[in-house]
Specification:
alpha/beta, seven-stranded parallel beta sheet, six-stranded parallel beta sheet, 14% strand, disordered N terminus
Length: 417
């Protein structure tokens, strides 16, 4: 509904990765499932899907015989056909209320064709603009004394600039993602501030993964890589000297394995490979630490809040979610003394951890996928029907974009939740 008038909207999302309930596909599918209703149709065009998303319609590009093959074998075939499948999907939807939703890109040729058909195009900016990311990561690898290994090229940056110019609206799920867009010339009017969410069912259960020990258990979940500041966390943990253990769960980047070998081999550091029951790890922890250098809006932060964990993170990790000294502590990733002091504080102050735990769990209640998806649905509907989506005043959430030294505009405001 919009101003009392029933509006039928159809969106077709281009998701170039398999829908398997993980990664970017999980974020796309979770939002889509929450947005879809009788007045708001959602179709996802993807290579294949092994995830029931009803009432979302899923168009699988791969033929039936190829949907169970290792994806790397059939990926070129899927990529060569997926944009044509998107255009075919758009053709059968109602043109007066149809939008394309890119996760995150399409070719310039497809974008031109969408504009020729007068289709409104949304883009999901699930990480910072690549030019900003390159600047941040170049510095990080330089500080490690190694050649940058992020894979961001001038051609990739140029393509993102062209895509950003061609689309109509861009969802920015954190203040620093929004700032990175503005920093790279995207018009403020295109940027739609948003958040992601979490699913309590994904964390359900009462089993703990690892037994309790004397001292605290601090966890990190995600790729154990330079981009997420894993090398910094290992250093800060060792220098803090607190009693307990640090658990890192994720895929280990080779350069971290090489440069941090002595820190990874410490008796109070445990590295875990990927496993499905992530809730059991959160239930094993006392605090969640995430010193990310470049992000979008990391889902692990939402899940850690939902698990009632005090958070120690950076402005990139905090997004709109973590308010300093309420749900956690937010620090510059390179502030070594600050991180070491914060680790010691959280390790020693049980009452502080208890207060932050309660606040984090309470805040997470307004960040479920269902709630966040309703906000997205309203934003898309307002854009398609010519109604300006109101930008709420600051709600006290997150960290100001200036905290990470990324230029912004004074009008940048938090979503309301």
């Amino acid at each position: 509904m919009n101003d009392g008038i029933a509006v039928t909207v159809s969106i077709a999302a281009l998701m170039p990765l398999p829908l398997n309930g993980m990664g970017v596909g999980y974020t796309c599918g979770s939002l889509a499932k929450g947005m879809a209703d009788p007045e708001f149709g959602v179709t996802i065009v993807a290579p294949r899907s092994r995830w029931p998303l009803s009432p979302v319609e899923v168009v699988e590009v791969l033929p039936a015989w190829a949907r169970y093959a290792p994806y790397k074998w059939v990926e070129p075939w899927a990529r060569s056909r997926i944009e044509d499948a998107l255009l075919t999907c758009i053709d059968r939807l109602q043109p007066e209320s149809t939008a394309a939703y890119l996760w995150p890109d399409a070719s310039i040729e497809t974008l031109r064709e969408l504009k020729r058909r007068n289709v409104t195009v949304f883009r999901e900016q699930f990480n910072c603009h690549t030019a900003t990311a390159k600047r941040i990561l170049d510095l990080a690898y330089e500080r490690l004394g190694v050649t940058p290994q992020h894979g961001i090229t001038a051609r990739r940056i140029d393509h993102e600039v062209q895509v950003s110019e061609a689309v109509d609206h861009i969802f920015a799920p954190s203040p620093l993602v929004a700032s990175s867009l503005l920093e790279n010339g995207v018009a403020r009017g295109k940027v739609l501030n948003a958040t992601y969410g979490w699913d309590a069912c994904r964390l359900a259960g009462d089993r703990t993964l690892i037994p309790s020990i004397e001292g605290i258990t601090a966890i990190f979940v995600g790729a154990i890589c330079v981009r997420k500041g894993a090398h910094l966390l290992l250093e800060y943990w060792a220098r803090s000297g607190v009693r307990g253990r640090l658990v890192l769960a994720g895929e280990l980047e080779p350069i971290i394995k090489e440069k941090c070998a002595s820190l990874l081999s410490r008796d109070d550091v445990l590295v875990l490979n990927y496993f499905k029951d992530i809730g059991s790890l959160y239930r094993s922890a006392d605090i969640f630490m995430f010193p990310s250098l470049e992000e979008g809006s990391p889902l692990v932060i939402y899940e850690a809040c939902g698990s009632g964990l005090p958070i120690l993170t950076t402005p990139m990790g905090a997004g709109w979610i973590i308010r300093p000294h309420r749900e956690g502590i937010v620090l510059d990733p390179y502030d070594a003394p600050g991180w070491i002091d914060a680790i010691r504080l959280l390790a020693e102050d049980h009452e502080l951890r208890r207060r932050m735990s309660i606040t984090a769990a309470e805040r997470s209640k307004s960040l479920t996928w269902a709630t966040v998806a309703r906000q997205r649905r309203r934003q898309i509907t307002d854009c398609l029907t010519g109604h300006a989506t109101a930008v709420p005043s600051q709600c006290g959430g997150g960290v100001s974009p200036a905290a990470a030294r990324v230029p912004t505009e004074n009008s940048l405001s938090a979503p309301k939740f």
